[in-house]
Amino acid sequence: MSIAEKIKLSAHDYLKGEETSEFKHEYIDGEVWAMAGASDTHVTIAMNLAFLLRQKLKDSPCRSYISDMKVRVEQANAFFYPDVFVTCEQKDKKNSHYKEHPVFIAEVLSPSTEAYDRGDKFKNYRQLASLQEYWLIDTQTQSIDCFTRRNDNTWILRNYSLAKETSTIQSLNIDLSIAEIYEDTNM
Length: 187
Description:
There is one protein chain. The chain is an alpha+beta fold. The chain has one domain (38-181): tt1808, chain A, CATH 3.90.1570.10. The chain is built from 5 helices and 13 strands. It has a 6-stranded mixed sheet. Strands 2-1-5-4-7 form a 5-stranded mixed sheet, covered by helices on one side. A two-stranded antiparallel ribbon has the order 12-13.
């Protein structure tokens, strides 16, 4: 009987592979996971949020990105594809394949990834000194959990679930209507 050796991939080899891969993969300390497809509701919410952010960040030093751009969490030796994120850091303009200084990250929840997005993924994201806000946007009900980092490095949670409510991304000084984020989703 033989035992298969688990091979760990270097970050360099992972990045090289992603350049030509048909599918996206996330990377955590040598291990690689393929990304699954998303539902219509998931894609619509992410697109709505990215579009709203792009409009509101026009003529600012900040830039919004969708799920085709990676975020590197150096402390965790990890690369993720957030659904939507914003960076305002000049240093991030130098790298065309990933960003390292997001101030805002949003994950649109899927039933299969919700526990991970709330748990281990958020644990990794919290290691980013630049990150000020993390949103978890539900696709089953109209509900957004907004985590905001305080000066003492603790996080506070606010939930928004009414279409008439407005949520604020404090670090970007942007107000967003919950109804606009969920537009065209039948919720």
